[in-house]
């Protein structure tokens, strides 16, 4: 992760964004534009000082930048955590000294829309053109600030990148692959998952209420309320798990068919531009389709405003009802799901790593001078069915890949 790598990846993702726009795939256009913009902003920060992109509290990137990446206890550079797109924009704007073409208020909808792909998979079509134009405008200004050759950066879009109408009219390159484009298929599967989930949740709602009423004549009002809530909980979770599993399997099949999966097992290979782009594509498709499951539930909630469907999920999430127990041979902990926002189960193993108390001149509180560090291997959401089974996908999805795990948290 350095200036050269970031600029190369920015160029690659911006071209991919304009490719997607030309093909009418707005969700992917926003995703790729967001990733590309984030990369070029970080390239500018690296030119001034690589430490500027290190996320607060993550020491690994700092150690690598200072030449201590091989020290005991320092995470691999591929697992270092860096700042997000909005923080990168705000810091880059300082160095631009008034040359940044938009302010934070104008830029924020672009950042929100890029994140919106990950959280809802459904964009505001009325605003999508505007947010992409904002992102392209920022990218071009930073490109000029870095002194990058425009033709080398924008490629075939050099003369049209600023006008999305002209981008849409650029002829598609001829090629031997006659398969339909991946993005429309993914969107179709997302909407299909939404339709199925809507139907399944509706049936679950009716079944839960019916089951709760079977012995209501013999129950007190308080007990009746508890039974109704339990019946709805069970029916709703069952419907979501079935639909989430089907949606996840559909996403996997699509990604395998298009050669996106399987990804290399080695996390170091994630730094390869081609593998990185495949990881982004895999996560986007999986999140897009999994988001359809929760969107179906929200649709039913809109039709039955008297039924606390969303409140049920929030309650289950806060109580940790769907958090898995420790699996045999593995450890499990929890992270926010990038598709639905609820708590998903993260699996991995613990490894003893020497602490750095001596290096920081602190009195050591760790038994034997070691800390247990969890390495995330997979992610599974019990609410929407999102499943990430490759460490490259974990990193791409923004899920913390390593974490110190106090004993009481396991």
Tell me the domain tally.
3
Low-confidence stretches: 118-122, 405-410
Largest sheet: 5 strands, antiparallel
The number of strands is: 5
Shape: globular
Write the layout of secondary structure elements.
Blueprint: H1 3-22, H2 26-48, H3 60-65, H4 85-96, H5 104-119, H6 125-146, H7 150-154, H8 164-168, H9 182-212, H10 221-257, H11 273-303, H12 309-319, E1 331-336, E2 343-354, E3 370-380, E4 387-388, H13 391-396, E5 402-404
Antiparallel strand pairs: 1-2, 2-3, 3-4, 3-5
Helix pairs in contact: 1-2, 2-4, 2-5, 2-6, 4-5, 5-6, 9-10, 9-11, 10-11, 10-12
Give the key terms.
410 residues; alpha+beta; 3 domains; five-stranded antiparallel β-sheet; 13 helices; globular
Task: Report what the structure shows.
Helix 1 (3-22) packs antiparallel against helix 2, helix 9 packs antiparallel against helix 10 (221-257) and helix 10 runs antiparallel to helix 11. This protein has helices spanning 3-22, 26-48, 60-65, 85-96, 104-119, 125-146, 150-154, 164-168, 182-212, 221-257, 273-303, 309-319, 391-396; strands at residues 331-336, 343-354, 370-380, 387-388, 402-404. By secondary structure, it is α+β, with helices and mostly antiparallel strands. The protein is 55% helix and 8% strand. It folds into three domains: 3-168, no CATH class; 182-317, no CATH class; 322-409, no CATH class. The chain starts with a helix and ends in a 6-residue tail after the last strand. Strands 1, 2, 3, 4 and 5 form a five-stranded antiparallel β-sheet that branches. It has 13 helices and five strands. Strand 1 and strand 2 form a beta hairpin. The radius of gyration is 24 Å and the shape is globular.
């Amino acid at each position: 992760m350095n200036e050269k790598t970031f600029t190369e990846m920015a160029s690659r993702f911006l071209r991919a964004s304009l490719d997607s726009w030309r093909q009418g795939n707005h969700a992917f256009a926003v995703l790729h534009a967001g990733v590309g913009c984030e990369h070029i902003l970080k390239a500018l920060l690296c030119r001034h000082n690589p430490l500027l992109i290190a996320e607060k509290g993550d020491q690994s990137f700092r150690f690598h930048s200072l030449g201590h990446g091989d020290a005991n206890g320092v995470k691999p550079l591929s697992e270092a955590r860096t700042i997000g797109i909005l923080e990168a924009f705000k810091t880059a704007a300082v160095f631009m000294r008034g040359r940044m073409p938009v302010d934070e208020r104008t830029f924020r909808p672009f950042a929100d829309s890029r994140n919106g792909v990950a959280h809802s998979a459904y964009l505001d079509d009325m605003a999508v053109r505007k947010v992409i134009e904002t992102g392209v405008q920022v990218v071009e200004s930073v490109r000029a600030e870095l002194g990058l050759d425009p033709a080398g950066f924008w490629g075939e879009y050099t003369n049209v990148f600023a006008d999305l109408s002209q981008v849409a009219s650029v002829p598609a390159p001829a090629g031997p692959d006659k398969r339909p484009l991946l993005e429309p298929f993914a969107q179709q599967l997302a909407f299909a998952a939404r339709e199925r989930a809507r139907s399944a949740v509706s049936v679950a709602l009716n079944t839960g209420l019916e089951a709760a009423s079977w012995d209501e004549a013999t129950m007190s009002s308080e007990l009746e309320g508890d039974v109704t809530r339990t019946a709805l909980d069970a029916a709703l979770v069952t419907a979501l798990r079935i639909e989430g599993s089907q949606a996840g399997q559909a996403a996997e099949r699509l990604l395998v068919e298009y050669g996106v999966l399987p990804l290399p097992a080695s996390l170091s290979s994630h730094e390869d531009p081609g593998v990185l782009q495949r990881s982004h594509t895999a996560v986007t498709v999986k999140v897009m389709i999994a988001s359809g499951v929760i969107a179906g539930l929200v649709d039913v909630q809109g039709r039955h405003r008297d039924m606390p469907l969303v409140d049920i999920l929030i309650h289950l999430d806060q109580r940790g009802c769907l958090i898995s127990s420790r699996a045999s041979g593995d450890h499990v902990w929890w992270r926010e799901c990038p598709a639905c926002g609820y708590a998903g189960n993260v699996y991995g193993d613990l490894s003893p790593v020497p602490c750095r108390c001596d290096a920081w001149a602190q009195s050591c509180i760790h038994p034997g001078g070691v800390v247990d560090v969890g390495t995330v291997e997979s992610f599974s959401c019990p609410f929407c069915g999102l499943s990430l089974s490759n460490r490259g996908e974990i990193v791409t999805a923004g899920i913390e890949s390593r974490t110190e795990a106090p004993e009481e948290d396991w």
